[in-house]
Design brief:
The structure holds two protein chains of two kinds. Chain A is an all-beta fold. Chain A is built from no helices and twelve strands. In chain A, strand 9 and strand 10 (144-152) form a beta hairpin. In chain B, helix 1 packs across helix 2. Classes of the chains: A mainly beta, B mainly alpha. The interface between A and B is medium-sized, with 17 and 18 residues.
Chain lengths: 182, 85
Amino acid sequence: MAITQVPPAQAGDMTLIKRAAFSNVAGTSTTFDNTISTTYETYVVVIERIFSENAETDDLQFQFRYAGPTTEAAGYFGQNFGAAYNASSMTFNQQSNVNQFTMGSQSGTAAYPSAATLIINGAETDQERPRFYGSGTQGSNHLGTTTFAGIQDNARTYTGLLFKTSIGNITGEIAIYGLAKS
Amino acid sequence: MTTLNQIIKTLKEEYPTLRVGDEQQGYTQLSSAEYDAQIAEWAQTRLDKQAKKAEAEAKAQAKAAAEAKLAELGLTVEDLQALGL
């Protein structure tokens, strides 16, 4: 039987826009500004490693950024739910018009950090409301899953993202990729 | 319960300075105004979490007390459910 070689992936199918490492910061601030643009419609954010420098029970959160640059601090709707490794029921976290979106309730620690993938559509144009979804593993005493989805109810031309925990500093590495339109 | 000002004081002791940035671009310290705003935000979050935890604990205590009263009467939660309560 002839072996057919799989053609190589087209250059630019999935493009690394920015990867950054940060240590003991009060949120990522401007680090991921100018990562969202009309070049891409779909963004894959890989949170490779992240943890709170304050407490393992800090929430892992993100916010959109837009021209100014300004942090979008309202209009997040959605939910995350998850379970610790030894749980037999889910814990739900409803989010209705909150100031930031919480992806998980356990940021983890240096020894047991968290990781997640976040996918975003509709953020690059003010003609749509951004929608986002993803999942991850939560570190520290949780050692379990988190699944999340939501929308940003303010349709704007967003230009970046900000990551943080609910209280205290964070450390981690995050990479943002753009998916080619065709 | 701890007050907001007490939490702010504690956080300022834990975090005498705050910085932003990353390994590639370098780090910069927050200005005094930015620092105060960030500490105030964290303090409010911690206060809200404490209130939520206290509420959950109060509910759990009320449930345990109600179950103890039922037990004294020789009843269980299942007995109440059987009555449609």
